[in-house]
Design brief:
InterPro entries: LarE, NAD/GMP_synthase, Ni-pincer_cofactor_biosynth, Rossmann-like_a/b/a_fold. The protein has 267 residues and is of the alpha/beta class. It has 2 domains: 157 residues, HUPs (Rossmann fold), CATH 3.40.50; 78 residues, Alpha-Beta Plaits, CATH 3.30.70. Helix content is 40%, strand content 13%. It contains 9 helices and 7 strands. The strands form 2 sheets. A 4-stranded parallel β-sheet has the order 3-2-1-4, sandwiched between helices. Strands 5-6-7 form a 3-stranded mixed β-sheet, with helices on one face. It is globular and about 55 Å long. It starts with a helix and ends in a 16-residue tail after the last strand. 34% of the residues are buried.
């Protein structure tokens, strides 16, 4: 076990929960939490991953592999695009989390688990995250938040535990790529997923392709913007992304930032 007070507190907290289901995405936070939950609870932890049109297929496959490596039971639950978020309202995250975690809670209850936990961390409370209200209302436990673990600490612990997700870039569901008020269409999610997967394949790790109908707005890491100052590369990217169904391709000059569509709320 890692010799750190916060880490020991997390182990103690998890042991107090008894038997848990972890909402598992395969990201930095949920992978770290799954590893520690396995250490604290043994076979009394199960991972549940949501399969939906707005979750990239590659993320589902990565989640499957990670759970297998950690030796934890795993269940996939299919979740459709619910009617209440069809036109991407500003409280979409709250409505979506409520629906999805209600499904997970029902499955956990039927299978005899005591709690559902998720990977919300201490830094998340500083961002606009209406989904946190849903978790609180449903009494989902957030051990990383409760033990005040920051993203930097989680990455450091993950590296010490030899988890290959320790330096994985942040990633959010594809709903965040669509402007608020726009209809959610499965074909747009396919375009976005293909475009982002392509950008990752050519070396852009932190990438968002925001979908404005026929226009793709690319956000890359601020440190990666200079890589795009190459006319041949720009032409190659534009042509490739058009192959996925977009008619126009543009670059966001500010670069990638978390929840860039949240900048439009209240304006």
């Amino acid at each position: 076990m890692i010799n750190n007070d916060k880490y020991k507190e997390l182990i103690k907290y998890l042991k107090g929960l008894g038997k848990v289901v972890l909402a598992f995405s395969g990201g930095v936070d949920s992978t770290f939490l799954l590893k520690v939950s396995k250490e604290a609870l043994g076979d009394n932890v199960k991972a549940v991953t949501i399969l939906s049109p707005y979750i990239p297929k590659w993320e589902i496959e990565e989640a499957k592999e990670l759970v297998k490596e950690l030796g934890v039971k795993h269940e996939i639950i299919e979740a459709p695009i619910i009617d209440s978020i069809r036109y991407n309202p500003e409280d979409r995250c709250y409505l979506c989390k409520t629906a999805v975690f209600s499904m997970i809670l029902n499955a956990a209850k039927e299978q005899g688990y005591d709690y559902v936990i998720d990977g919300t961390n201490f830094d998340d409370i500083s961002d606009y995250r209406p989904g946190l209200r849903a978790l609180k209302e449903l009494e989902v436990k957030s051990p990383l938040l409760e033990c005040k673990l920051t993203k930097a600490e989680i990455r450091a612990f993950s590296k010490e535990l030899k988890l290959n997700t320790w330096d994985k870039p942040p990633y959010a569901c594809l709903l965040t790529r669509i402007p608020y008020g726009n209809e959610l269409k499965e074909e747009d999610f396919v375009k976005i997923e293909n475009a982002e997967k392509y950008m990752m394949s050519i070396g852009f790790r932190a990438i968002r392709v925001r979908c404005h109908g026929d226009l793709a707005r690319i956000e890359v890491s601020r440190n990666d913007r200079s890589k795009l100052f190459d006319e041949e590369l720009l032409d190659t990217i534009a042509n490739k992304i058009k192959e996925f169904g977009f008619k126009y391709v543009t670059l966001d000059l500010q670069g990638y930032r978390v929840g860039s569509f949240n900048e439009t709320i209240g304006k």
